[in-house]
Amino acid sequence: MRSARYYLIACGTKEYPHLGDYEALESVEDDIERVVNALSKCGYERVLQSSLNLNPSRDALILNFTEWLQSEDRADTDRVIFYYSGHGHSIEGDRHYLLLQDTKETMLAQTSLPTEELIRPLNNEGIKVNQILYIIDTCYAGQGVAEINRFASEVLDRHQAVYASDRKSVHFIAASRFKQPATSGIFSELFQSELEQFLEDDKKSTELRFIQPSLLVDKINGALDETQRSRQRVVHSKNLCEKGVYFFPVYPKSLVRWEANRDNLISRLMEITSAHKEDALLFMNSFLLMSSPKSDLIFEQAATLEKLRYLGSLPVLDGICQLVALSEWLRQKFLNRNYRKANAKEIAKQIGIWQRGILLHREDVDFDLVEEKVKDKLEAFRDIISEQQPRLQIEIEPEIDTANNTGKKTGHLNLYVNLWVRNKSVPLARLLQNRLDYYSTNSQKNNHADRLIDCLEENKMLSSIVDRVHLILSPEKLKSLMLEIEFILPFEYFEIPLDKMKCSYTPKFSRVLGTEYPLFINSYERYFDEEYFRSKEDVYLKKERLWKDEKHELVICYNDDVCANGGEIDIDAFERHDIFIGSQPSESTLDLIEATFPIAVWSRDSSINLREELDITRWQDWPGQIQALRKHKKSANITLFWDDLYPKPSERSRPLNTSVVE
Known about the structure:
This protein is an alpha/beta fold. The strands form seven sheets. A six-stranded mixed beta sheet has the order 2-1-3-7-8-10, sandwiched between helices. The longest helix has 22 residues, at 367-388. The chain folds into three domains: 5-250, Rossmann fold; 253-388; 391-642, no CATH class. The protein has 24 helices and 24 strands. The protein is elongated, with a radius of gyration of 33 Å. Helix 1 packs parallel to helix 5 and helix 11 (322-335) packs antiparallel against helix 12 (344-358).
């Protein structure tokens, strides 16, 4: 989430060459300067100063304001104040108008700007700004504000957002009431003095606070002398949105120092951890997972800076700064005795030095409390990981010709390795993205399936990934991590004995992957091939029944049920059943398994009878049961196809297949 940004658009009209009855307003320049100076102390950045300042034309005002609101750089966390100073005119039976430099006395309605036009840009598509305050410093401003508010209520509130959290919060301050003229310079002078007094008083606070517009208006009206009060009253109003109001932030002095140095300190923290940035990214995600299960994880280095800035923008609560807590999490992770990578202890030392530097800018942080809380969370982290059931998803997919944009397979394979937890729609970490050039492997085997296994075993690729996951998620008790491994494979690799693949930890020590972990396969085509879209939907309905409907009675399809009518495959039998159990299935049977079943298990030879070995009543635990079978019956050659409700990789964009177009 992007932290809040504060923008001010301030303009006004001083000269009226075509309006004989209206004198030039010498106070307009001072009005703008006072408002700009006051709001700059609240953190506002003035924008459009070159195009909207003094004496804007009608078209320039609306077009520049609209284009700025529709900019791609806008965000729903932006806060915007629009201030206008000048002559205002109310035409009886018509509307309130802002008189501009090009307004003509004989065509006043046609050459002035109806005040309500200021809000119409918010009704355009693509407007992300959700909070805006209009300050109209003119005569009869109350009428103009009422017209803007009516538009907000009738159009924005009624037609735009269904949910209150998504609706636009629009506030208005009018320098005068409906039928009151406004005295030049009075509003801007009191606005500046009262806002600055608020800021000075509230800086005694230690936390970020916000001044309510209604309270500021009350203070301004209270500062008017008796004569002024009888002629002019400032008015605040708003549309019906019930959002919190965050237009006038008050930064305590400690926070001002922190804001000035935050980005440099964040850059330094990233620099310290850059030697092991992939592991640091995983550590950060584990912190986010532990801090808030609903927090968005980061899986690219580019998103790290934005996440750190967000954590740094959060207030210190009860002595805890979330950015400092993250740094302590990183320090203790790198300091762990089982994390033995080069320079790990030096990184932990440098993070400690970085933390001491924070004290110069965030003296309200209680470091002893932060350290204690982080230690408690690290103790609880292994329990959380166990509940979230981490899974290593290894995607092996055909390489597509992107160089010529043909959409055809090149004959090579791409490997993607992601670490997931159950309740996240994005990976906890992306561990590897690599091209498997298995034609150039050192393997002497001709079979492409055997070559693939040799390629995966070569250079201890998977061994190092599995070892890294253990060290990062559960460094104290490596055996306690219940990691699952899911291979997402193209159809032609379904019969590869991946469960027999070895993980080599030392030149003389290796373990069989299928006996160390629950290991199963899934279909690449089901998630990446458009031709399988319909079957994927049908399979998903079966998955919903299996894992969510407690009353659903399991229907199992055995080898004997597949064939009927003289050996022909009975397709209806597949569609009626939830699970397949068999032995040495044919290619056509495997094809139907891929198209119709969420779960299938088969032996690759006749060495084991799965009907006898598997507990049908505990089918949800088949990954663990089959792991135990592989461990205790070394000759067991079992493939488990397992497509559950666990998060799956999202489809990646494919190049255009020009042959299809032709």
